[in-house]
Amino acid sequence: MSKIVIIGAGFVGSTIAYALMIGGTAQEIVLIDKIKEKARGEAMDLNHGASFVKPINIYAGDYSDCREADIIIITAGVSQRPGQTRLDLVETNTAIMKEIISRIMEYNTEAILIIVANPVDIISYVAWKSSDLPHSKVIGSGTVLDTSRFRHLLSVRCGIDPRNVHAYVIGEHGDSELPLWSTANIGGIPLERFCEDCTRACSSHIREEVSQGVREAAYEIIEGKGATYYAIALAVRRITESILRDEHSVLTVSAYINNIYGIKDIYLSVPCILGKQGVEKIIPFKLDETEKKLFFQTADIIKKSLPSDLLQPSLQLT
Fold first, then answer.
1. List 48, 152, 166, 173, catalytic entry
2. One digit per residue, pLDDT tens: the chain, 318 residues?
């Protein structure tokens, strides 16, 4: 029986619980929140739909309920507000994450951690350095959602089912993220060749417009309704499924990088194989010269934003 603990029962955490519930992903879900009444209310609301889904036990708990959890999902932290970037949240959410990891480690040193709190690449690094876990078991939600946004915008542009669009976003889950146009393909056909026969071929101007649409999507949603939670909940469910089912799926989670294109000691989103042990392998990926330059830039932004007390002096960005 699979057990998942979700720490943080706000918009994102409760929607993740709902997505896991309707997907039949786990048989036991525990909600933990500093406002205990909030966790209890969310659990009650979810349980009232139990007759419509596969058997599941959902309840509000505390950190002691992390025992025997297979996966612990951490969404707790200060949320991004209109006008803020994700990097504006570093200091506050670093302190919150250190406290959460300390509490988790009292009860469970075997679970896989999925970090959803922003800025996710930095906070995932903080979570790993603060825990007793191998880096393969501390995973950020990364650009799994951004990749889906990219595929959606391409599907609209090309008039193709997004499930047949294969393209990735790598780097920071944030303003410097990098949509990979050079390896994008439609049903196995490279995008460049597909565009030759397309009456709506993407010029460089259109490509930049699509890339900006991916980067700015969260800002637009936050401006409109205050928070993003539906799509990220589905992205986290997808990550969770790949781990619990040992699928070996390729997803652009935020993972520990140590010498890829010379980049070391950092968490960034790259295509990874996910299975029951967490990140089992980083898929070798090719970048053209422009993409390589942008990848270095996004890595440099994250590196400079890492808490200085956690850095390894011997491992620096090159």
1. 173
2. 899 999 999 999 999 999 999 999 999 999 999 999 999 999 999 999 999 999 999 999 999 999 999 999 999 876 666 665 666 677 788 889 999 999 999 999 999 999 999 899 999 999 999 998 999 999 999 999 999 999 999 999 888 999 999 999 999 998 899 999 999 999 998 888 887 766 565 667 888 899 899 999 988 998 899 889 999 999 999 999 999 999 999 999 999 999 888 899 999 999 999 999 999 999 988 899 999 999 999 999 998 888 766 655 433 433
Contact of 180 with 147, CB cutoff 8 Å: no
Residue 27 lies in domain = 3-140
Same domain, 208 and 300: yes
Q: How many Cα atoms occupy the beta-carbon half-sphere of 270 within 13 Å?
A: 24
For the record, the structure tokens of 72 come out as 């612990």
Listed residue (310, 311, 303) closest to 262, CA to CA: 303
Identify whether 173 is a catalytic site residue: yes
Q: Is the separation of the CB atoms in 261 and 286 below 8 Å?
A: no
| Domain membership flag for residue 318 | no
Same domain, 124 and 158: no
At 78, phi and psi to the nearest 5?
A: -75, 135
Residue type, 57: N
- Name the residue type at position 64: S
Token digits of residue 208: 């930049």
Cross-strand bridge partners of residue 57:
28
Domain count, the chain: 2
